[in-house]
Structures are given as structure tokens and as C-alpha cells.
UniProtKB/TrEMBL annotation:
Source organism (scientific name): Parasphingorhabdus marina DSM 22363
A Pfam family recorded for this sequence: EAL
Disordered: annotated span: 764-806
PROSITE patterns to which the protein is assigned, alphabetical: EAL, GGDEF
Highest rank taxon of the organism: Bacteria
PANTHER family: BIOFILM ARCHITECTURE MAINTENANCE PROTEIN MBAA (PTHR44757:SF2), DIGUANYLATE CYCLASE DGCP (PTHR44757)
Protein name (database record): PAS domain S-box-containing protein/diguanylate cyclase (GGDEF) domain-containing protein
Length: 806
């Protein structure tokens, strides 16, 4: 017993063949239909010739046996068939099957099949049925041949085939039965079986015919699509197709390839592909890839077109050559010049500053490290680390656009100021570095630095007006190859810091002591960041004394730092660090809140003075901090006195004056500190009605021995009195100073003569809080953007630090 799965597939196949329907897209169906017409046209023309012997044989036999009537009938049938065959032959010879209507042609062919079947079978069946010709083997063969040949002729169109074989087989069956009766049943059955088998075979042939032509049509359609896509790709794509022979010579270059290469097609044909490209490492890679005979991808090579450098990307793979030749190589090419330039731009930006086009820090470090490694015994290398002195002011007054122009001008001047083997770089912001590769001494490096400063101090014309931007320079010297680039730059940076502390347009050479001082400063910065949390800060208070009565009328808050290892640290050691690092913000708010909190414990007639720095005045949180601190403590605002120095008003004076008016509107008093040391002291008194003027200690120190100091103090006290302002003299140390100040009309004094800065517990009249809270720092912290210049060193007679006691 056979495999049921195989049998099932066989039956399904037979059903598909027997009931075949063309199920495909319209274009493919039309293609197959026209192939049907072409096939039946060719076969029918041959079939007309094949039918001549059979027709002649039956005609002769009828003429021998049949009467005249049947002979005439036979001749008529032959004439009709001959006419139809000749007409069909001639029509099929001139038919353009690509233009005719398929359905109309198919209907005509079906009609011809019916007509041919009727007359062809009648030639034999009718005379046989009326006994005009004897039944024999030749007649049976003619009948079977007529059915089979006719079915074969019309087999390209199943409808025509079925009609022909059906009409012919029925006609012959009728003739056989009429001539032989029941004796012909066996032969008829065999005849019908053969007919059915032939019909099935023809249908199977037609099925294969259709499948073959469907496959061919689809292959042609796919080939046309590929050809169209390739043509479209060649015409519209940014890539170009290329092919070279076994000698790497260009074969049949396309118009686009020639256009891209800016050459004529005839110039490219037969030319080595590699000759198109510039002599380079990339071209050598291309030659190696071609020689290897293996596929390659995305190989970038430079090509010169009309004197301009372009970049092409090539990909290729070997393919069999024609006529048995060696492998050809086919591939694509694309212009990647824009992408290549972008890539080079990115690489450039990774190593060069985008504004000045100078090397950046990364490239400078690499170059510096190589220079250090090449140092020979006796050779020296110097690093000049420079910072522009007035750059922030230029940005603030003229804008960042002007600042950028200044940086470009500075970069240009620096490039002209160095030697061929030296390197200048922009490290960021307004910081630059110069590597002097060959110097003989430290003095030479200093001379070079001084020359750079002179060049940078020359005015730069920005938008029609001169702009001056000097520079400060720190120098680090290297005379051994073991030093690292980062370490050398760090040393130069420390020297720059030292130079800027000495003033503008200064030069400083790094020394080990600078490194030690810098490290100490760094340690102070690190410890100061957590000093508040560790409760290491303390406020002390120096009395303000009424010069007439000798009574204490208030105190000035001064900051002290109790370091767990260093002990007591004076403000002049840590306040500058706090200002530079921004830690002054937190310290400032803590001092303001702590001072007001302590003021709650004092008698109502006492006030507290807290200093404000320029940075604190620029903070948008200054007024909110003052308001919140006053609200939290409930202190009368008039008991708080804020002291500012003239330097506060020197920068953005109009905005600062407006801010002082807002603070004054809260009821807080404003004092001008260190009066007489600025550039426009009298102008500041005109700009804002201060409550108090504090005379700087430089005038107080010699007031009892120098007439000029007494004259200045008399002038200040007289001016203050006429303006309704109180005067306070700072730094009073001797009785003679006090007497002279009293004589000259000074209202208040403070200094070491009366008291050093006291802990809060020693303030006269202080009432301890009901609940002991310890150091106010435990409960009062602030982190708004506030800054202070209130911290002053405690006065010690005979020392520089005592010059500012408040």
C-alpha cells in the first residue's frame, strides 16, 4: 500500500492540472496568454499540413466505395476545411500577437476548433454511419488520429482543445455504433478511454507550458526591474558603478563615473584605475587590495579634480570575466569629501581651540611631554602660564563678542611673539600657555615673559575703540626629562597665582616655597568647607565707644576659626581663600544670622555691625537674607549696621546705590568703611546718604604726631557733621590718639585701647538665653549666595595685622 501522504499530493496535483486556472497578476497573465496565441499559431500552421494525408486517404476511399452524393459531401467538407486552414494559415502569418485582443482571438480559435472538429469527424463518421465505407482498422486509426492531432493543435487553449476533442470523439462514437452496433461497444469504450487520456496529457502539457512561461515572465520582470534599478541607481544615486579587467584597467566607464572624475569616457577607457588617485598611503592600500584579488569595502582614497582635492570611497569584489578571462573586479564609488572634511574638522576640534585655532590643553600637554622627553643634559625648557588682567571687565562692559575678538587678537600676538619651535596654546577662558623649548637661564625666560606682557599691553582696536588687556605670567622651568607635563603646568599655574597676588602685569618664577604655600592654601580650603559643620567658627565682638561719654554703644562682629590642629586661625589667613573659592557665601550668611541671634541677648541700646563685600552686594539673595534674618530674630532693623568699603561702589556703582537704598528702606543703617583710601570718596558721599563714615586707621595711627593726619580727620568730621553722618575712628591704640580725635570732633572710636575682640559671653549687659543652645552655629546655618568682608584680624599692637581692628 502506498504512502498516503504521497498519494494525497498526487491527487491534489491531478486536480490542479484538470481544473487549472491561471492565478497570477494581470501583467504575467497577459504575457502567458500571448504565448498561448503564438504557440497555437505555430502548431496550427503545421497541423494544416499534417491533415492533408489523412484527408486525401478518406477522400479516395469514399470515392471508391460511396455513391456520388456522399462523394460530393466529402468534397464539400474537405473544401470547408481547406478554406478554413488556408485562411487560418494566412491570418496567423500576419498576426502581431503583442497587439491583438486575446479574448477575441481565443473566441475565434474556439469557434475554429468546433468547426474543424465537426467537419473532420464528419468526413469519416457520416459515410461510416450510412454504410458507404466499410468499418476497418484504417477507419479506426483515422478517427483516433483526427481526435489526437486536433487536440494537440488546439492544446495551447484548453477550451478549444476540449471542444474539438469532445465534438470529434462524440461524432466518431456515433459513427462506430451506427456501423457496427453493439459489436462496437468495446472499441468505442477503448476509443473514449484513449481520448480521455490524450485530453489529460494535453492538459498536463498545457500546465507545464503555463508554469514555464509564468516563470520566464517573472524572471524577465525581475531582470527588467533589476535593470531599471541599476539604471536608476547609475543615474540618480550618489554612487557610481565601476569595473576593471584583470590588468586593473577601467572597462566601459559610465557617463556618471566620467563626470565625477571630470574626464571624458574615452580618456578613462583602458586607463588603470589607480592612476586616477593621488599618491598616498590610501592609494597604496587600494593597490594592495586589488592585488589580493579579494573583496574590499569603504576604502577612502584622495583624487585631484581641477586642482582641488576630493575623497572617494571605493568598494569592490571579484567577478568572473568574459570569454574565460581572469577575474574582473566590479564595485561602487561615492564622493565622501564632505564627510571626510567633517571628520577632519572633528579631529581638529579635538586638539585645537575652536575660537583661536591654537592647540588646546590636550594637544599642548602631548607636545609638552614629548619636549620634556627630548631634553638633553644642560638643556632647559620653560612654561609660561598667562592670564589676561582685564578680560572680565572687557566682557562685562563691551560684551562677549568683544571678548572673543580680544582673545583672537591675543592669540595672534602670542603666535608672533614666540620662536619657530615654541608652542602656544589656549587652555581655556582667558588662560594661555607657552612652551619655550630652548632657554639658557631663568633670566631669559623672564625677559621673554616681559616681552609678551609688553606686546599684550598694547591697545587692541575693537569696534573702533582701543581696548587694553595686559597679562600676568607664571613661569616654571624644567631641566630634567623625568618631570611630567601636568606637574610642570601646575607649577606654572602656582607661579601665576603668586604673580597676580603681586599686582597686574607681573611675572613670577615658580619656587618650592610657592608650592608649599599653595598646598597650605589648598588645605585651608578643604578644612574650611567643613568648618561650619564642625562648629569651629566663632564670632567675637569689638566695642564701639562714644568718645564723649566713654560708653559702649555697640559692637562690630569679627570672625575667628578654631582649627582642631592649627589652633586659632586669623581671618587674613582664610578669608581670601573663602572669597576665591566661593565659600564666603556660606560664611557670610552664617555671620549675619549668628550676629543677629546674639544681638537678641544684648540690651536694646546696643547695636551690631557686620561688613558686606562687593561679591555679597552682587548676590540677588542679599535682601531676602537680611529680611529673613531680621524676621527670625525679631531684632529692630535700626540695631543692625552694615558696613561697605569704597570698592563696593567702584564696580557697577549705580546698581549698588539702588541696592543700598532698598536696604536702607528696611530700617538698616549703612556705614562707609575705610573712608579716604579710595579714588572717589567724596563722590560716594554725594551718591548715597550714609549713616556713618569710618575713618581708616592709616590716618588715625599718626594723628597725635602729624599735622596732615589731623587736618584730614578734621576735614572728614566736619564734612560728616554737615551731611548728618556719624564718624568712627578705627585702630585707636593710645591715649594721645584718643585725645586728638576727641579734639578734632570724632564721635565714635574703636580699637585695642578699649578692648580686644571679645567672646559673646563677655559683652557688657548680655543676658544669657533662657535655653542654652551653645554655639549659634549649631542652630543657624545659611547657604544663600552671600559674601562678607567683615572678617578682620584681631589687633595686636606693633604688628602689621593690627592695622585693621575695626
Amino acid at each position: 500500500m502506498g504512502n498516503p501522504v504521497t498519494l494525497q499530493r498526487l491527487l491534489a496535483m491531478q486536480k490542479k492540472i484538470w481544473r487549472f486556472r491561471l492565478d497570477t497578476d494581470a501583467e504575467t497573465a497577459e504575457t502567458v496568454a500571448r504565448e498561448q496565441l503564438k504557440s497555437i499559431s505555430q502548431i496550427s500552421r503545421i497541423g494544416s499540413l499534417i491533415s492533408i494525408p489523412g484527408t486525401s486517404y478518406i477522400l479516395i476511399k469514399i470515392c471508391m466505395h460511396a455513391n456520388i452524393a456522399f462523394a460530393a459531401f466529402t468534397i464539400f467538407c474537405v473544401a470547408v476545411m481547406a478554406f478554413a486552414s488556408i485562411r487560418n494559415y494566412r491570418r496567423q502569418a500576419r498576426v502581431d500577437h503583442d497587439r491583438i485582443d486575446y479574448e477575441k482571438s481565443a473566441r475565434m480559435i474556439v469557434a475554429e476548433a468546433k468547426l474543424n472538429a465537426a467537419f473532420a469527424s464528419a468526413l469519416v463518421a457520416v459515410p461510416l454511419a450510412f454504410g458507404q465505407i466499410p468499418m476497418g482498422l484504417d477507419v479506426a486509426i483515422l478517427g483516433i488520429g483526427t481526435v489526437i492531432i486536433g487536440g494537440f493543435i488546439f492544446g495551447s487553449i484548453p477550451r478549444a482543445q476540449s471542444w474539438y476533442m469532445g465534438i470529434a470523439s462524440l461524432s466518431f462514437t456515433g459513427g462506430f455504433l451506427a456501423a457496427e452496433g453493439t459489436a462496437a461497444l468495446g472499441g468505442v469504450a477503448l476509443f473514449l478511454f484513449v481520448t480521455l487520456c490524450a485530453d489529460y496529457i494535453y492538459r498536463m502539457f498545457f500546465f507545464n507550458f503555463v508554469q514555464r512561461h509564468i516563470h520566464a515572465a517573472r524572471e524577465k520582470k525581475a531582470a527588467d526591474t533589476v535593470r531599471l534599478l541599476l539604471h536608476d541607481y547609475a543615474e540618480q544615486s550618489s554612487d557610481w558603478l565601476w569595473e576593471i579587467d584583470e590588468d586593473f584597467r577601467i572597462i566601459n566607464p559610465s557617463a556618471r563615473f566620467a563626470s565625477a572624475a571630470a574626464r571624458e569616457i574615452r580618456e578613462l577607457r583602458g586607463r588603470p584605475l589607480t592612476d586616477l588617485f593621488e599618491d598616498s598611503t590610501e592609494r597604496n592600500f587600494l593597490i594592495q587590495s586589488l592585488d589580493s584579488g579579494e573583496a574590499f569595502r569603504d576604502l577612502a582614497v584622495p583624487i585631484n579634480i581641477h586642482g582641488k582635492l576630493f575623497w572617494w570611497k571605493l568598494s569592490g569584489r571579484p567577478t568572473p570575466g568574459t570569454n574565460g578571462s581572469r577575474l574582473h573586479i566590479r564595485g561602487v564609488a561615492a564622493d565622501i569629501t564632505r564627510a571626510k572634511l567633517a571628520e577632519e574638522r572633528v579631529a581638529h576640534l579635538a586638539h585645537f581651540d575652536s575660537l583661536t585655532d591654537l592647540p588646546n590643553r590636550a594637544l599642548f600637554n602631548q607636545s609638552l611631554q614629548r619636549s620634556i622627553a627630548r631634553l638633553k643634559p644642560g638643556q632647559k625648557l620653560a612654561i609660561l602660564y598667562l592670564d589676561l588682567d582685564y578680560f572680565k571687565s572687557i566682557n562685562d562692559t563691551l560684551g562677549h563678542g568683544a571678548g572673543d575678538l580680544v582673545l583672537k587678537a591675543v592669540a595672534s600676538r602670542l603666535e608672533k611673539a614666540i620662536g619657530v619651535e615654541d608652542v602656544v596654546a589656549r587652555l581655556g577662558g582667558d588662560e594661555f600657555a607657552i612652551s619655550l623649548r630652548h632657554i639658557s637661564s631663568d633670566a631669559q625666560a623672564k625677559r621673554q615673559a616681559a616681552s609678551v606682557i609688553r606686546k599684550l599691553s598694547e591697545p587692541i582696536m575693537i569696534e573702533g575703540q582701543p581696548v587694553v588687556s595686559g597679562a600676568s605670567i607664571g613661569i616654571a622651568i624644567c631641566n630634567a626629562p623625568g618631570l611630567g607635563a601636568d606637574e610642570l603646568l601646575k607649577s606654572a599655574d602656582i607661579a601665576l597665582y603668586h604673580a597676580k597676588n603681586n599686582g597686574r602685569s607681573c611675572v613670577s618664577v615658580f619656587e618650592e616655597s610657592m608650592g608649599t604655600a599653595f598646598q597650605d592654601r589648598r588645605n585651608i580650603e578643604l578644612d574650611l568647607r567643613s568648618a561650619l559643620q564642625r562648629n569651629e567658627l566663632e564670632l567675637r565682638y569689638q566695642p564701639l565707644v562714644n568718645i564723649e561719654s566713654g560708653d559702649t554703644i555697640g559692637y562690630e562682629a569679627l570672625l575667628r576659626w578654631h582649627h582642631p590642629e592649627r589652633g586659632l586661625i586669623m581671618p587674613n589667613a582664610f578669608i581670601p581663600v573663602a572669597e576665591e573659592t566661593g565659600l564666603i557665601v556660606q560664611l557670610g550668611e552664617w555671620v549675619l544670622r549668628s550676629a543677629l541671634q546674639e544681638l537678641c541677648n544684648w540690651p536694646d541700646h546696643l547695636s551690631v555691625a557686620v561688613n558686606l563685600s562687593p561679591s555679597q552686594m552682587r548676590s540677588p539673595n542679599l535682601i531676602p537674607t537680611i529680611v529673613s534674618a531680621l524676621a527670625a530674630t525679631g531684632v529692630d532693623p535700626s540695631r543692625l549696621e552694615l558696613e561697605i568699603t569704597e570698592s563696593v561702589l567702584m564696580s557697577d556703582s549705580q546698581n549698588n546705590v539702588e541696592l543700598l537704598h532698598k536696604i536702607r528702606s528696611l530700617g538698616v543703617r549703612i556705614a562707609l568703611d575705610d573712608f579716604g583710601t579710595g579714588y572717589s570718596s567724596l563722590n560716594y558721599l554725594r551718591s548715597f546718604p550714609f549713616d556713618k563714615i569710618k575713618i581708616d586707621r592709616c590716618f588715625v595711627e599718626d594723628v597725635d604726631s602729624r599735622e596732615d593726619c589731623r587736618a584730614i580727620i578734621r576735614a572728614v568730621t566736619g564734612l560728616a557733621s554737615s551731611l548728618g553722618m556719624v564718624t568712627t575712628a578705627e585702630g585707636v591704640e593710645r591715649d594721645g590718639q584718643l585725645d586728638q580725635l576727641k579734639e578734632d570732633g570724632c564721635v565714635q572710636v574703636q580699637g585695642y585701647l578699649f578692648s580686644k575682640a571679645l567672646p559673646a559671653t563677655e559683652v557688657q549687659g548680655r543676658v544669657p538665653p533662657d535655653v542654652e543652645t551653645g554655639n549659634p552655629a549649631e542652630n543657624i546655618h545659611g547657604d544663600r549666595d552671600l559674601e562678607n568682608s567683615w572678617a578682620r584680624p584681631e589687633h595686636k599692637p606693633g604688628t602689621d595685622a593690627s592695622r585693621k581692628t575695626g
